[in-house]
Amino acid sequence: MNDLELAPTSTPNMTNVLEARGLGRSYHGKPVVSDVNLAVPAGQTVAVLGPSGAGKSTMLRCLAGLEPIQTGSIGFQGRPLSEAGGKPRSFGGRIGMVFQQFNLFPHLTAVQNVALAPLRVRRLRREQAHAEAVALLDRVGLPEHHDHYPFELSGGQQQRVAIARALAMRPELMLFDEPTSALDPEFTREVLAVMRDLAEDGMTIVVVTHEMDFARRSADRVVFMAEGRIVEDGPAATVFDSPAQQRTRRFLAQALGE
Ligand SMILES: Nc1ncnc2c1ncn2[C@@H]1O[C@H](COP(=O)(O)OP(=O)(O)OP(=O)(O)O)[C@@H](O)[C@H]1O
Ligand SMILES: [Mg+2]
Fold first, then answer.
1. Nearest CA to ligand 1 atom 13
2. CATH of the domain at 129
3. Ligand 1 atom nearest to CA at 58
4. Residue 14: its pLDDT value, please?
5. Ligand 1 atom 25: residue of nearest CA
6. What is the number of domains present in the chain?
7. Can you tell me the distance from the alpha carbon of 86 to that of 69, in angstroms, rounded to the nearest whole number?
8. What pLDDT digit, counting tens, does each position of 103-147 carry?
9. What is the pLDDT of residue 102?
């Protein structure tokens, strides 16, 4: 028997890590995200841009499986994550999420914050969880802060601990919701550098951001949302240099201060 005969008849589409079709979410009957179609291939970095209230955070929470959806479906690595009207399925830490507010445990050190989920969920031995946490903190540029508590860290350092904490669950997809918008410019740069490294290492990323320079330089693709819908979706260079939609042009002109 050759390899072809062994292949299952319906192979899930493994090239897309994430696939949303006709995704809709409303609150109290008011649509907030409508008919979103978004397929994210492995290794791609997608920057989501758009005005306040466009539904970016809501979409991201749906993609993370943190909120139910009312229409459409979401798949993660070829498996159903969320279906209209159903409860989203949890993929544990396989989908990492980083928010604007870092939400670290205040009573735990950096290493303890990062090692916690691997200990509890991945059931690693203490020494191994600790060793992995140390390596991750080094990777996000915090080799000297392993034993610091959150209150002893700057916002940028806390956000990098939060990223290390998400990475500790070995995610195959990272979702970021305005990870730098609570930070001063200096700390913003540090966090963006960590995200750029992740992108270059081949992580699949969807990031909601107002950092236009980051979106243009580090994202492969830009999705522009307004009023709950994807208005424009294309290669970062194309969307920035020659946006097809008037709405995108206006937003970019304002965001870029032109
Ligand atoms: N839990 C909720 N209950 C009711 N309405 C909500 C809820 N969360 C969000 N909304 C509404 O949904 C719309 C989209 O909100 P969302 O936070 O997704 O926008 P956003 O694009 O992330 O905006 P911003 O750039 O300000 O973060 C807003 O009108 C908001 O008021
Ligand atoms: Mg938001």
1. 53
2. 3.40.50.300
3. 18
4. 55
5. 52
6. 1
7. 7
8. 999 999 999 999 999 999 889 999 999 999 999 999 999 999 999
9. 86
Read off the pLDDT of residues 67-99 as tens digits, 9 standing for 90 and up. 999 999 999 999 999 999 999 999 989 999 999
Residue 118 falls inside a structural domain: yes
Q: How far is the CA of 36 from the centre of ligand 2 (A)?
A: 16
Residue 224 pairs in a beta bridge with 49, 232
Pocket of ligand 1 (CB under 6 A): 27, 32, 50, 52-58
Residue 161 located in a structural domain:
yes
What residues make up the domain containing 53? 12-255
| CA 228 to ligand 1 center in whole angstroms | 9
Look at ligand 1, atom 26, and give the residue with the nearest C-alpha: 52
Test site for ligand 1: of 32, 177, 210, most ligand atoms within 8 A of the Cβ: 32
In a domain, 128, yes or no: yes
Extended strands (E) in the chain: 16-27, 30-41, 45-49, 71-76, 79-83, 95-98, 173-177, 205-208, 221-226, 229-235
Indicate if the alpha-carbon torsion angle 120, 121, 125, 130 is positive or negative: negative
- CA–CA distance, 221 with 43 (Å, rounded to integer): 11
Averaged pLDDT, 232-243: 97
210 CA → ligand 2 middle, Å: 10
Pocket test for ligand 1, best of 48, 56, 63, 69 (most atoms within 8 A of CB): 56
Is there a domain that residue 5 lies in? no
Q: State which ligand 1 atom lies nearest to the alpha carbon of 55.
A: 18
Which ligand sits nearest to residue 177's alpha carbon? 2
Q: What is the β-pairing status of strands 221-226 and 229-235? A: antiparallel
Spatial CA neighbour of 221 closest among 196, 202, 239: 239
Q: Which of 95, 110, 228, 249 shows the shortest CA–CA distance to 172?
A: 95
